[in-house]
Amino acid sequence: MNKAEKTRQFIIEKTAPIFNTKGYAGTSLNDMILATGLTKGSIYGNFQNKDEVALAAFDHNVKQMFSVIRGEMDKQTSIKEKLQVYAAIYEDFMGSRFPKGGCPILNTSTEADDTHPTLRKKAAEAITSWKNNIAALIKKGIADNEFSAELDPEQIAITIVALIEGGIMIGKVTGNPNYRTCIMKSVEKMINDLS
Length: 195
What we know:
- By secondary structure, the chain is mainly alpha-helical.
- Helix content is 77%, strand content 0%.
- It is elongated, with a radius of gyration of 18 Å.
- Residues 28-47 bind DNA.
- InterPro entries: Homeodomain-like_sf, HTH_TetR, Tet_transcr_reg_TetR-rel_C_sf, TetR_C.
């Protein structure tokens, strides 16, 4: 990486936790300056505007989130065990190596659905990618005779995503992490019932 690329990466890494915690609207230029130690001119010399920083920060947070999941899945052998990683990680995702602030997909989706079309599109793409990854695992489980051939991988995959994101949201909004835990137990049971 050249100096400009390193500076861009530095800005992304330092601002990503802020955007994921405070949201797009809640993150100010001053927050970005404090996090990076750079001037406004240095930040906007590398990014056109706050939108561009926010989009790059979202990509960084999602990449970090999926990297944690992939790392744990790589330790598993069966498809069922790989899928169970989702329930295990999201049951205690605040204690894992997740991005500060929690699930960037949920955080961005709830803030940007009506206010920021570009961020909403990024969040929608992340959900679709996540759903596709789960569906691909289920299809492999069917092909390997680990799961029933009667399953609908797309329906199961989007249901798992919805349960996980709903569980996080309910636990976060109510301040009761036990709700999230209960819902992740349902995800675990759903995965166990695939065979």
